Amino acid sequence: MLRSSARRVKKVSFLFLAFCIAFLLAMPLQVSAKPNKPPKPEPSKPGILSLSSIAYVTKEGRDSVTITVIRAGGDDGTVSVNYCNCSKTATAGEDFGHVWNTLVFGDGEKVKSFTIPIVNDTKKEGEEGFIVYLKDVTGGATLGLSLAYVSIFDND
Ligand SMILES: [Ca+2]
Ligand SMILES: [Ca+2]
Questions:
Q1: Where along the chain do its domains lie?
Q2: Ligand 1 mean position to 114 CA, how many Å?
Q3: Rounded distance from Cα 66 to ligand 1 centre (Å)
Q4: Residues forming a β-bridge with 72
Q5: Could you tell me how far CA 115 lies from the centroid of its own chain?
Q6: Residue 66: which H helix or E strand, with range?
Q7: What is the pLDDT of residue 107?
Q8: Which ligand gives the minimal distance to the CA of 130?
Q9: Which of 5, 71, 120, 156 is 20–30 Å from 82 (CA)?
C-alpha cells in the first residue's frame, strides 16, 4: 500500500518535473517566435522647397529685398537648401549685394527667408534686375520653383 503510493508520488513528481522542463525549453522558443519588431515608421515627407514668387520688386532707397522660401508637401526632419544671386541687368556690388548661403529648415518648419542688400546709387538709370536661385537641397527634400527675377526701380 505504502509502496504503491510512494511510487505514485514518484510518478507524479516525475511528470511534474518533465512538464517543468518542457515548459522551460518551450519558453525561449516562444520568445524567439515573436521577435519584438519595431512598428514600421510612417513614410517621411521632407517636402518641396520653393521660392514664394517668380518675380520680386524693390527699389533703390530700400535697404534690402526679402526673399521667402516655402516648404510644402511635408515638413519631416531637417532639410536645407543653398541660395545665391547673380547679375542680370543689375550689377552685383553696384546695384545689389551678392549673397550665397544656406537656409536650414528644422523639423516642422515651413517658412524661411533671407535678405539681399540693395545699393542706393545716384546714377539715373532704368529698371534693372538680377536673378536669385535655390540649389543643392538636402534631407530628402526636393526643389520646386527655384529661380526668380528681382527688379530694382531707380529713384534718381
Ligand atoms: Ca542702380
Ligand atoms: Ca540709381
A1: 1-37, 48-153
A2: 21
A3: 18
A4: 48
A5: 22
A6: strand 64-72
A7: 97
A8: 1
A9: 120
Q: Grid coordinates representing 104?
A: 536650414
Ligand 1 centroid to Cα of residue 126, in Å, is 8
What's the pTM?
Answer: 0.72
Cα separations (Å) of 85 from 22, 72, 114?
75, 23, 12
Task: Give the Å distance between the CA of 73 and the centre of ligand 1.
Answer: 38
Domain 48-153 class, CATH top level: mainly beta
Q: Is the pLDDT of residue 155 over 60?
A: yes
Could you say which ligand is closest to the alpha carbon of residue 95? Answer: 1
pLDDT digits (tens, 9 = 90+) for 16-28: 667 756 777 776 6
In the reported structure, the alpha carbon of residue 60 is separated from the centroid of ligand 2 by a whole-number distance in angstroms of: 7
CA of 5 from ligand 2 middle (Å) equals 116
Ligand nearest to the CA of 125: 2
Q: What cell was used for 118?
A: 540693395
Q: Alpha-carbon distance 89 to 80, whole Å? A: 29
pLDDT exceeds cutoff 70 at 152? yes
Pairing label, strands 55-59, 147-153: parallel
Q: Is pLDDT of 31 > 70?
A: no
Which among 134, 156, 136, 150 has a CA at the least distance from the CA of 87? 150
